[in-house]
Amino acid sequence: MGRRLLLSATVLTLLTISSLSEVRSASFKIVNNCRRTIWPGLFTSGGGGMGQLPTTGFALKSGESKNISIPTPWSGRIWGRTYCGRDSSGKFTCLTGDCGSGALECAGGTGPQTPSTLAEFSLNVLAGMDFYDVSVVDGFNLPILIVPKGISGARACGTTGCLVDLNGACPKVLSVERGDGKEGVVACRNEFADELFNIDPSEASYYGRSLYSRFFKSACPRAFTNPYEDRAATLACASATDYIIIFCPSPNTGKTTE
After folding, report:
1. Whose CA is closest to 109, among 131, 125, 92?
2. What is the mean pLDDT for each group of 10 consecutive residues in the chain (258 residues)?
3. How far is Cα 56 from Cα 43, in angstroms, rounded to an integer?
């Protein structure tokens, strides 16, 4: 199934209008609270008029953070790649979230391979507003939390995310094993993004209430889990806002979860 930027159709149809908006930059602070190094990737979608990113991929050690200036209007995704390294030919690959570039930078070619947890943004695209969500419709590999910061403040705009590590509890049929001679589930597929299930849109209502769909929604009630019935997961904030994207957040404790 083709990947979707899970924002409202109205917002997406107005992306071309956004190119006429006042250009400003949003600040993304990307934080790695996981126990091991991750490799965040960034992908621009939405066609022409989008701001050019200063980076499309980098390494982030445990406990580190990185600030990135995002020229707006911008629409795209941020995700975490895991278990990355270079093969015998020197090609850079990742076990989860690989973007297919063969390099540290994703270079704007493609988004992440499924399954991957996505932080999705459309910044300054309509009437000076940002729209954002965390999606597990393409599956799950890492917990993510989005915290808006700025003029409106986090309380006014709302935080969102998928805070629970789903890999350990992932149903066997959806589990992605490490597969390098070491045991362990490294990602959890979502039936909506997996060709194994081949869901027909006319049957979406049934699948939206399926056992697997309820598993994702129960664990991540604020995230997009179903592309057909989950539109309330998109949040809005004034575009004079910056964002913190935290990988492996741990509510109330500050401890890592992965």
Report:
1. 92
2. 41 39 77 96 79 90 96 93 93 94 85 93 87 93 91 65 93 85 84 60 54 84 81 83 93 45
3. 7
Cα torsion through 102, 103, 104, 110, rounded to 10: -60
Length of the chain: 258
* pLDDT at residue number 16: 39
Residue in the block written with tokens 């179903």:
226
What pLDDT sits at residue 3?
A: 42
- Residues in CB range of 127: below 8 A, 6 or more apart: none
**Structure-token match 């049929």, residue found:** 173
In sign, the C-alpha dihedral spanning 90, 92, 93, 94 is: positive
Determine the Cα–Cα distance for residues 97 and 188; give it in Å rounded to an integer.
12
- Radius of gyration for the chain, computed over Cα atoms and rounded to the nearest angstrom: 17
Contact (CB, 8 A) for 99 and 80: no
What is the helix, strand, coil percentage profile of the chain, to 5? 15, 35, 50
d(CA 82, CA 11) in angstroms, rounded, equals: 31
Q: Where are the alpha helices (DSSP H) in 103-161?
A: 153-157
What is the three-class DSSP state of 182? coil
Report DSSP state, residue 11.
H
* Full set of structural domains in the chain with CATH: 9-247 (2.60.110.10)
Angle at 111 between CA 218 and CA 95, to 5 degrees: 75
